[in-house]
């Protein structure tokens, strides 16, 4: 995976030390597989054995390569060539992970182990949360299956950014030149879509070799209601931990099942998180003047130069209060999701798994240091999905469970306005012990208003009294007077006027 695919530089955070920078630089070796091609032409020709030393390849390979080139240039499915992205991701997966471990098919034994782990995880979670199970099925995925299952969600997240890039590439030309260069602009967009598709495919393929389930980045990447684990990656993750693999699998199943409960039974959460990411991406601006200078300096005889300049960083998030607020909302939402999962899983695992504390700390550090998931997304969308306040959020959720019980804690997910804010994460004890709004009096008023059909006023004349079983009082012709509160025979609720005032039921 390249360090800055299609123009994004990773945002620098205050207080970041060199370790994070070095880590990102160490990850910039292509896709982590010995440096795969960084542009679509090299990727395409290399896949047919035409890009290596000597350019070896049969005429059939060459013909297939040119056929793929024609398909690439004729793609009109949007700002990103997702067909190419899928192909590159699958090729990246086939090459194996950074440790040289190849993808493998998932067998029946793997499916059975994952299904049993998720079943047991749901059983343990029932005792620590009021949210019911959210997984209608549990599956074991290979890396290639993870790629296929999550690409639709990546499409939603990346397309807004890529569309802005494509439009900017056309807007740098004067209007009169745009009319003359219509076919050329179309080809530029196709090439741009191919570049984006190649880089996204490399990044997603790399990530497939690292993720452990469908919710590693804190977002619902997979299909709704489907809990998924990747056995091959779990085996690799568990090496060297000194923890039995069964415990590792169960702990990860707890995390996956807890995420699924939250995303399935908090109906607004999925769209809230994805919408926040998309909204942030749409706010990214393109430095048109820089892009215009870049286009003027490109050597037409070196197509790869466009790719090199795109990687120099063309986009910078607007440094506006609105953009900062969008980022703060997203980071807080991610922290609340990950903090709730952390707290609930810890409560469920503590009495069952001897290594629960060690596994908890291992996964906390994996998230806090910006693992491959966060780095990949930062490169693609210019945004790091790192729950920086995870520990604060987990502490707040645990305190809420102690103070209000699991019912009171989980009730906060009923509406986004009830959730803690970033300020509350600074003072979790203050939020936990804050006096809760008492809606009982309001409920009584609303109930009285609903039953107060008996308090209406009419326009009748005469004595204004209610008669029979009619609970509504009449209005006299003048003055005002109170009903006498004593119902007539056969009338349980009606009152009668005392002359010319409005009668009122008791």
Automatic annotation (TrEMBL):
It comes from the Bacteria. GO terms for biological process: proteolysis. Residues 453-482, 495-506 have a biased composition (Gly residues). Residues 1-52, 449-506 are annotated as: Disordered. It holds the Pfam family Zincin_2. One of its GO terms (molecular function) is metallopeptidase activity. Residues 18-27 have a biased composition (Basic and acidic residues). Keywords: Hydrolase, Metalloprotease, Protease. InterPro entries: Zinicin_2, Zinicin_2_N. PANTHER family: HYDROLASE, PTHR39420. This is Zinc-dependent metalloprotease.
């Amino acid at each position: 995976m390249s360090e800055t695919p299609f123009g994004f530089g990773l945002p620098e955070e205050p207080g970041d030390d060199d370790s994070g920078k070095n880590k990102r630089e160490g990850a910039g070796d292509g896709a982590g597989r010995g440096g795969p091609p960084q542009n679509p032409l090299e990727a395409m020709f290399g896949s047919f054995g035409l890009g290596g030393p000597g350019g070896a390849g049969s005429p059939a390979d060459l013909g297939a390569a040119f056929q793929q080139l024609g398909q690439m240039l004729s793609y009109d499915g949007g700002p990103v060539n997702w067909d190419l992205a899928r192909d590159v991701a699958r090729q990246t997966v086939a090459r194996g992970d950074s440790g040289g471990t190849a993808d493998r098919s998932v067998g029946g034994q793997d499916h059975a182990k994952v299904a049993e782990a998720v079943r047991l995880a749901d059983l343990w979670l029932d005792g620590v949360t009021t949210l019911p199970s959210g997984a209608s099925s549990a599956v074991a995925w290979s890396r290639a299956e993870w790629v296929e299952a999550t690409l639709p969600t990546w499409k939603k997240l990346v397309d807004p950014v890529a569309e802005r890039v494509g439009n900017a590439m056309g807007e740098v030309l004067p209007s009169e030149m745009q009319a003359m260069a219509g076919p050329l602009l179309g080809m530029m967009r196709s090439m741009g879509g191919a570049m984006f598709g190649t880089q996204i495919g490399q990044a997603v393929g790399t990530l497939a070799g690292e993720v452990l389930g469908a919710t590693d980045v804190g977002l619902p990447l997979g299909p709704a209601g489907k809990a998924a684990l990747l056995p091959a990656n779990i085996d690799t993750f568990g090496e060297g931990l000194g923890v039995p693999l069964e415990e590792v699998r169960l702990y990860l199943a707890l995390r996956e099942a807890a995420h699924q409960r939250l995303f399935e039974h908090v109906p607004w959460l999925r769209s809230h998180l994805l919408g926040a990411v998309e909204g942030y991406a749409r706010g990214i601006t393109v430095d048109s003047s820089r892009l215009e200078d870049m286009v003027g300096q490109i050597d037409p005889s070196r197509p790869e130069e466009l790719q090199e300049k795109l990687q120099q960083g063309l986009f910078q998030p607007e440094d506006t209060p609105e953009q900062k607020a969008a980022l703060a909302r997203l980071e807080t939402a991610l922290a609340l999701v990950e903090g709730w999962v952390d707290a609930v899983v810890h409560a469920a695992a503590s009495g069952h798994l001897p290594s629960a504390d060690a596994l908890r700390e291992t996964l906390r550090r994996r998230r806090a240091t910006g693992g491959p998931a966060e780095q990949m997304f930062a490169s693609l969308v210019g945004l790091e999905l790192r729950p920086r306040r995870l520990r604060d959020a987990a502490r707040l959720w645990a305190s809420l469970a102690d103070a209000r019980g699991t019912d009171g804690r989980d009730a906060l997910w009923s509406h986004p306005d009830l959730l803690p804010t970033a300020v509350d994460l600074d003072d979790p004890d203050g939020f936990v012990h804050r006096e809760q709004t008492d809606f009982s009096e309001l409920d009584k008023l609303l109930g009285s208003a609903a039953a107060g059909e008996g308090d209406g006023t009419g326009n009748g004349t005469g004595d204004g009294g209610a008669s029979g079983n009619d609970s509504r009082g009449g209005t006299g012709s003048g003055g005002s007077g109170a009903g006498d509160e004593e119902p007539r025979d056969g009338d349980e609720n009606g009152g009668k006027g005392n002359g010319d005032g409005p009668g009122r039921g008791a």
